[in-house]
Amino acid sequence: MDSRERLTRRANSLLNQRGIGFQPVVFSRISQARRLGHGIFQQPACRRGFSMMEIIVAAGLLGVIMLVTVPSLRWVSAGRRDAAQRQLASQELANIIERVLARESSTLTPESVATEELSAEAKARLPGGELKVTVTATDDSPPARRVSAELRWNDATGQMMAPLRLTAWKY
Fold first, then answer.
1. What is d(CA 137, CA 135) in angstroms, rounded to the nearest whole number?
2. C or N: which end of the chain has fewer Cβ atoms within 10 Å?
3. Burial of residue 150 (number of CB atoms within 10 Å: 0-12, 13-18, 19+)
4. Are 22 and 38 in contact (CB under 8 A)?
5. 3-state DSSP call for residue 117?
């Protein structure tokens, strides 16, 4: 027995152990070979990484998501800034009214409240802030004074915001 025969027998015995021999190839043998992963029917090794098409589709989806998200974040940011400015303006007006009402009725005149100014924080956070405080005396019984404060400021685009008003009465 020469080496060629030995190799052929050894190959046949190995293939027979795995269920594939040198028999006429029929459909069932091809299916079995594919399942077992032998010869030309061997399936490719486990796929690692992504194909170029998958990367392009993922980048496209990411781009669409960014197109929607970034403008939305800008709108939310502008809304929060406007709300914070309005809250600061409201607190500033309440503080001014409280300071004015703390004065004695005899010293509460339109001239005395004309000197009221915004705080340093309000001046810094409310660009172009304009404060207007008025005192109006009434002839009713008991005598009363109407104190009104109005505050306007510029928004991020430089347009003047609608005024914020606060009114109180001192008897």
1. 7
2. N
3. middle
4. no
5. coil
